[in-house]
Each structure stands twice: as C-alpha cells, then as structure tokens.
Amino acid sequence: MKPTIITGQQIGLLGGPLYTTYKVLGAIHLARQLGGKAVYWIETNDADFNEINHLEYLDVEGQLRSLTWEMNSQGYSCGQIEIDRSLCDLLTQFFDTLRQTEFTPALRDMALRCYAPGRTLGEASRLLAQELFGRFGVELFDPSTPEFKAFIKPMLLHEAEQTPVGEQGNFFCMIGKKRMAVFRDEQGFALRDGTRVNLVECELVPNVKTRNVCQDAYFQTHTYIAGPGEIAYIRELDAQYARHGVKKADVTPRMSVTLIEPKAARLMQKQQIALDDALTLEKTALAQHIVKTQTGFDFKALTQQTSELTRAYFAQLRATGAAIERPFENAVLQALKEALGQQRAQEKARAEKLRAAAESLSDLLLPFGQKQERVFNLFYYMNLYGGLAFVDWLFERYDPTRNILEITG
User: Fold this and answer.
1) Can you spell out the DSSP letters for 260-324?
2) Which one of 81, 134, 243, 372 is least enclosed by Cβ atoms within 10 Å?
3) Are 66 and 105 in contact (CB under 8 A)?
4) Which domain of life does the UniProt lineage start with (predicted)?
5) Are residues 42 and 116 in the same domain?
6) Which domain does 11 fall in, by range?
7) Res. 320: pLDDT tops 70
8) Would residue 374 count as lying in a domain?
9) 381 has pLDDT over 70
C-alpha cells in the first residue's frame, strides 16, 4: 500500500495564512519522496469564525491593512457559512488596494470564481485549493462528508463511553449547522444549556483530542505534516490512540520560513539593518535601535563643548595681549551654533529616514508583531511574484530545515 501523507488546516479566506501553503506543499513533497499519496484535510467543522474572517496585507502604499468580513456567523461551523455579497465586495477591495501587477486580474478572477454568492465557505475553500494545488496531484478531503462521519461514529460513541461524569466529551454534536459541545452528567449527555442529546441519533464530529485519531484510522496515515502547536498536542494523544486501537502516524514539522522580498533586502543593505534584529525586535524597538546605533549626534552636548572651547581659545588670545572685542567673540559663537543647528537638522532627517526604513522592514518581515507566515496569505505574494508560478517556486525550494527564503525576482 502506498503511504498516505496528510496535512490539515481549518479553512480561511483566500486559503488562510501562508503557513497553510507550507503545510500542503510539505505533504506533497514528502509523498513524492516516498512514492505515496498526499492528502490535504480541509477542516470545515471548526466554528471559530473570528479567527478566519479577515485578510491582513500590505497595500499599494506599503501600509499594513486589515479587512474584516462583518457578518453574523450564527455560531455555524465555518464550512457551513454561506458566502454573501459583502464577502465578494471585501475580496474586490483587497485586490483593488494591492499593487496592480500583470497577475492581479487573473488572481481576482480566480478568487471571485471560487467565492461565489450562495456557495458555502467549505465549497469555496475546496475549489480554491484545487486551483492552487490540484496540479500537484494532492487529494482534497472534506471531513463533513457522510461517508467519513459514518466511519468515525462508532469511535466517537466509544469515546463518549469513556467520558467521566461532569466532563466535556472529546467530540461535538452537529445541531443543524452548529457544532455543539457535549457534556456528560448522571443521566447521559447534554448541551451546555442543559438540552438533552441522544448521541446515537446525532451527527458527531471530532474535537482536537480525537481529530488526528479519526484521521489516522480512516487513512491509515503514514506521516502527518504539522505546525509547532500541533506537534505539541499530538504528543499528548497516546491514550486516545490506545483507546481506539489506532496506529499513530509519524509527525514531521512543516517548513517555516520568512520570505525576504527584494524591497526588504534593499532596505537591510542600504540602511545597514541586521536581519536578526528585524526578526526579533518589535517595530518600535527596531526603529529605536537602528536610530540609536547609526546616529550619535548630540546637539546639546556639542553646543556646550563648542562654546567652552571657543571661549577658552579667546581667553588665551587675550592673555597674549590680543584686543578681541566681545561682540566679535559672540558672533563667532553664534555662527558655530548655527552651523551645528544645520548639522542637527540633517541628522534629524537622516534619523527619520532610518526610522521609516526600519518600520517598513518590520512590516514586511514581522507584520503586526507576528511571524509573517501567520499574517500574510498566498495571494499577496502571488500578486507580486508570478501568480500561480509562485506556488511552483515555493515547492521547488521546499525544505523544512530552512528558516529564510529570499525572493530574487
């Protein structure tokens, strides 16, 4: 049997943050190495709408922007939420405020073709994933399908039997389009508001402690491509795997890189900003650090020192008998002060340029103070660097040992 390599991520607008792309490319990359099959688990059951309802990017002016889809999700699982005209308007605003390139029209058309009014976010996410990754041969999997739910139902009922009284079960019950937490009491199971539920009659979906177990049982997963948070919680799932007699898949970290755009490279070179500083210091701290280390002009101290030296010099001249009038001495001091003032203005202008450069670099590499891969989406980079060809470029350079990837084109 060919090994199955899986990665998964909850759905997000325009494919979600960039790390989702790294996970999918990681599964494809390893599957090709092992001669196996890559699967992208498109998580449609998650209900945290506020985590996925926004786009963050740098606009045509180089300013960080955040666009939010303001709508009442009614607590629905995100994959069940229907796309409305306001989302289409938001996506249009996103593309209109990007730097316009030869790739912008096709990318806008692709996005709006997938996110059509009346479709669900789950349907749109699958269509978009097909556009982005379909040519790599990856299998797209939606866990809301009846076949999968039927397969995992006995597992989740068994999990329910092991739930202690007073505790929440490691699964959810679907009530219409809502994913509801279920709690065990002396009489059986109930929702948070006390409504009784019959688990046998309910559609059940896994939670964070049973998702990977259900996944590995269904696919007999060889390897799962995971982010750092997933790796940590998967380590804690041995009891769940043993309970259901499921073999735990190997877990491999995804690639996690910071993309260095040409603009960022130019800023660092011209302004002598160290990459390590840009990746570790918050925006304000980076700007202060750069200005402090590259400008040392102290107007007050230099003015005082100049005055003291000049007065001492004239005092020595008078000691030799030279007739130097006070107005002349004062005029010299004033001229020196004005010269220092001009230098001060030049240094202030240079400091402002350094500050602006440092802040612009921080927005490129550490936007909103977060890792780049957690903020920007794939479309932001495709728009600038080749459209769909940028995805191929990333895949060709996929390496989980990398932490920096410079865009040279």
Assistant:
1) E-HHHHHHHHHHT--HHHHHHS-HHHHHHHHHHHH----HHHHHHHHHHHHHHHHHHHHHTT---
2) 134
3) no
4) Bacteria
5) yes
6) 4-145+209-256
7) yes
8) no
9) yes
Whether 249 and 357 map to the same domain: the answer is no
Instruction: Render pLDDT for 168-219 as a digit per residue (tens, 0 to 9).
Output: 999 999 999 999 999 999 999 999 999 999 999 999 999 999 999 999 999 9
Model confidence over 132-179: pLDDT tens digits? 999 999 999 999 999 999 999 999 999 999 999 999 999 999 999 999
The number of CA neighbours under 13 Å toward the Cβ of 271 is 31
Q: By C-alpha distance, which of 254, 258, 259 is closest to 28?
A: 254
- pLDDT for 298 beyond 60: no
- Residues 376, 56 contacting (CB under 8 angstroms): yes
**Is 270 found in the same domain as 250?**
no
Does any domain span residue 187?
no
Question: For residue 258, what are the CA distances in angstroms to 70, 368, 373, 376, 378?
Answer: 30, 15, 7, 11, 13
Contact 176, 182 (CB under 8 A): no
241 and 297, same domain (yes or no): no
CATH code where residue 115 lies? 3.40.50.620
Q: How many domains does the chain have?
A: 2
Query: How far from 87 is each of 64, 113, 120, 381, CA to CA, in Å?
Result: 20, 13, 12, 21
